Amino acid sequence: MTNLKDALDRIETDLADLKRQYDLFFQGVRRSEPQEERRILEWMVRRLGQRKIPNTTDQFRFSGLQSRFHSYSNLWTRMVRDLEEGRLFRDTQGTLVRTKSLPAEPVTPDHLDRVIEQLKNARQECGIATEEKEVDSLREMLKSRAAEIAGNSGARRVEFRVTIEGGKPKVKAGLK
Question: pLDDT per residue over 145-154, tens digit each?
Answer without folding.
Answer: 888 887 777 6
